[in-house]
Amino acid sequence: MLAKNLLRARLTTLLLVVGSALFLISPAVADEAASVLANTVDFQAPVKDAPPSVAVTSLADPGITPLTDAQIEEILDEHNMFRARHRAPALEWDAFLARDAERALGNCRPFSSRSRYGRNEFTSVEIDFYLAVETWYAQIQGYDFEDPSQSTQNSGTFSQLVWKNSKRIGCAVKECLSNDDGEDGGYSSFVHLCEYDPPGNMVTRLYTLYKKNVLPARKI
């Protein structure tokens, strides 16, 4: 009886579309149709839950280690300490950039894909953003402030770190396995990635943007 009433209620308001015309089923026709269906069909109300055959998978990458508030603060403090030394404004944390960094770490090779953001990468046997930023800044040794075009290729992480026009930063870290063909089954390392917006290391004729954005350190 419950099934019949439910069918009647649904059939009463059912719209049939024929061409561009709309037709409403009358209550009398709905009663007759409901009686037929209730007696011939094992009717059940729709179930909202997904069928068992549909697998729901998480988009989260198990290799990604979520950053704590303390780690984010450390990243900002280290960056902004060096940036202040080179007269660049402090960076602000950007959650979107952090998520994009996680995505870029999907195959453990972030530079295998192009990006609209600046990127610095660091790999170590443990999670250590302090060491990462210190390592990036150490590339100042290869940077030529008088003629940026003569800077070594290994100075790019330094120039991105202190690039004056960059305003936002987001970082992520992922545990990645080395080639496991060896007898030891490979080893794990942690790939650190920070993204910057607007990006640095923008090459122009005569390297004018480098001269405007990568300034010598303040004299102490």
UniProtKB/TrEMBL annotation:
Residues 1-30 form the signal peptide. Keywords: Signal. The keyword Signal applies. Gene3D superfamilies: CAP. Transmembrane segments: none annotated. The keyword Acetylation does not apply. Residues 70-204 form the SCP domain. It comes from the Eukaryota. InterPro entries: CAP_dom (IPR014044), CAP_sf (IPR035940), CRISP-related (IPR001283). This is SCP domain-containing protein. It comes from Linnemannia hyalina.
